[in-house]
Amino acid sequence: MTMKPVPIFLAGVVLAASPTFAAPRWVEDACWRAANRVLPRLSAREKEAYITNCIANWTAGTPPPTSGTNRNRY
User: Fold this and answer.
1) How many angstroms from the chain centroid is the CA of residue 1?
2) Pick the residue with more confidence: 5 or 63?
3) Domain range for residue 50?
4) At residue 3, what are phi and psi to the nearest 5 degrees?
5) What is the pLDDT of residues 14-50, one digit of tens each?
6) Backbone dihedral region of 73: left (phi > 0), alpha (psi from -120 to 50 degrees) or beta?
7) Number of domains in the chain
8) Which of 4, 41, 54, 55 sits in a 20 to 30 Å window from 26, CA-based?
9) Is residue 20 one of the residues assigned to a domain?
10) pLDDT mean across residues, the chain
11) Does 19 fall in a domain?
12) How is 1-57 classified by DSSP, letter by letter?
């Protein structure tokens, strides 16, 4: 059985080039801070999902929440 390195390499490149990895560090930090401000407190899984959605929104063109906004409060 022969290995097919080209398809394996291409699959790795596609997985590594997802939009979440394209976000700069400051966006990840801003989304993390915004997730910590959400009340009531999020569980670890909910916080991870919030940060992922925030980064995905940034790649779509919506800026991450700033400390001056209270959109995360009930």
Assistant:
1) 39
2) 63
3) 25-65
4) -80, 145
5) 555 555 567 899 999 999 999 999 989 999 999 999 9
6) beta
7) 1
8) 41
9) no
10) 78
11) no
12) ----HHHHHHHHHHHHT-GGGGS-HHHHHHHHHHHHH-SSPPPHHHHHHHHHHHHHH
